[in-house]
Amino acid sequence: MVGTLGAMASTEPTLFDQVVNLCKRRSFVFPSAEIYGGFRSTYDYGPLGVLMLRNVKDAWWRSMVQLRSDVVGLDAAILSPPKVWEASGHLDNFSDPLVDCTSCKTRHRQDQLEDADTCPSCGESGTFTEARAFNLMFKSQAGPVEGAGADVYLRPETAQGTFINFKNILETSRKKPPFGIAQIGKSFRNEITPGNFVFRTREFEQMELEFFVPPAEADSWYEYWMNERYQWYLNLGIPADQLRLRAHDDDELSHYSSGTSDIEFLFPWGWGELEGIANRGDFDLTQHAQHSGQKLEYFDQGTGERYVPHCIEPAAGATRSMMAFLMAAYDEEQVNDDTRTVLRLHPQLAPYKVAVLPLSKKDTLLPKAEEVLHSLQPHFMCDYDITQAIGKRYRRQDEIGTPYCVTIDFDTLEDNAVTVRERDSMEQQRIPVDNLVAYLNEQLAL
Ligand code: ATP
């Protein structure tokens, strides 16, 4: 691998630069509003990025909802009234301590400073202002008359939308604890120090499960979800030596949490959180019950028992995880005299599963190539590329992680078979067109 983890002082491009460049060059991620000079820390997901991000979310949904019978889905509103955030504690507590450097005028999160007294931007000591609490929620107004509308907040997490729907779902879904509600969607935080590409942005996507359990089972379900979620990243190709579970120290825990662990990835700048798994007790349901005046509890008709379920919350970032999957998959290798860039993405995450490549642009091959393409499209997300030499086209597909290339050549017109090339081994096999879907399905094992 040419890219080096954390080799910031070297003149070689770092893994971070390589992945960021690839994302721009190959339309994964663009800086937002670029034609207007960009809008700091906001990004747009281009043709390949939107496919990959969707695959990350689909992989999560598949494992958390589709393959289980104890989890249902939800898509709650992004805008919500202040009452929700009063109850959740976000209006009072969802803030970071902020300091300004009086010398160079930069702004920093106090809890992230290596040296609490020294400005990392200008190196001056003793130049910080007193820390102030900075609320991270975006506030707006709902209503047609400017300035006279009701206050609303953009949600800083999807979880509260789940808690306020607990009663609706309990009454309509025929689920009882232990059961969960899964949600994927955008969240917004006015981060003081956004950065490191899509690692920390002001608008991002989360994938959160709230899993409600009888209080006595909370600890064992907490253990269960830590293991499940850790395994999910491993299964999708994050190497074990770049992934760890870290239990929070007591001073990091929220007052209501009896345990929180982060799943962390080894980013080029060090370990960073991909997901937090928290044993939240009955805090959220109790708070919303008190503030709304509604009963948010479970009544077991069999035993006559009534209780407020405890909640285990695995809360992951979709955009941040996508960045980790890209970093872990990026590789460069020497092939003869050439350097091949290859994204060794898990097939489930790869934007395209198959690329269909006619060997030449000659009219005789294109109808057959299009026929093969149309036979694959109902089954797989496919790319179709007729430009440049075949070797160059293979490299272009390697660089975006396409697991299989299907080449239509002049023999195809005679034997109705195609050459299938695998991304990692670069091995090629001749496969009859009639068996192609079955062959690719078996190989991809999606
Ligand atoms: P951090 O400590 O990095 O600010 P957090 O502990 O506040 O994160 P949570 O509230 O637990 O994060 O959110 C769950 C997940 O949502 C995080 O693990 C992360 O993957 C993602 N996430 C949180 N904030 C951001 C952000 N600003 N940009 C991108 N993803 C984020």
Provide the fold topology.
Layout: H1 15-25, E1 29-31, E2 43-45, H2 47-66, E3 71-74, E4 79-80, H3 82-88, H4 90-93, E5 95-100, E6 107-109, E7 132-135, E8 139-142, E9 150-154, H5 159-163, H6 166-173, E10 179-188, E11 203-213, H7 218-235, E12 243-247, E13 259-267, E14 270-279, H8 283-292, E15 298-300, E16 305-307, E17 310-317, H9 318-329, E18 330-335, E19 338-343, E20 354-358, H10 366-376, E21 382-384, H11 390-399, E22 404-408, H12 410-415, E23 417-422, E24 428-432, H13 436-444
Parallel strand pairs: 3-10, 20-21, 20-22
Antiparallel strand pairs: 1-2, 4-9, 5-6, 5-7, 8-9, 10-11, 11-17, 12-13, 13-14, 14-17, 15-16, 18-19, 22-23, 23-24
Helix pairs in contact: 2-9, 3-8
The protein binds adenosine-5'-triphosphate (ATP).
Can you characterise this structure?
The structure is a single chain. By secondary structure, this protein is of the alpha+beta class. It contains 13 helices and 24 strands. Helix 3 packs across helix 8. The longest helix has 20 residues. The two termini are about 25 Å apart. The structure holds adenosine-5'-triphosphate. The site of adenosine-5'-triphosphate has 16 residues, from strand 11, strand 14, strand 17 and helix 9.
Quick tags:
13 helices, seven-stranded mixed sheet, alpha+beta, five-stranded mixed sheet, 446 residues, 24 strands, disordered N terminus
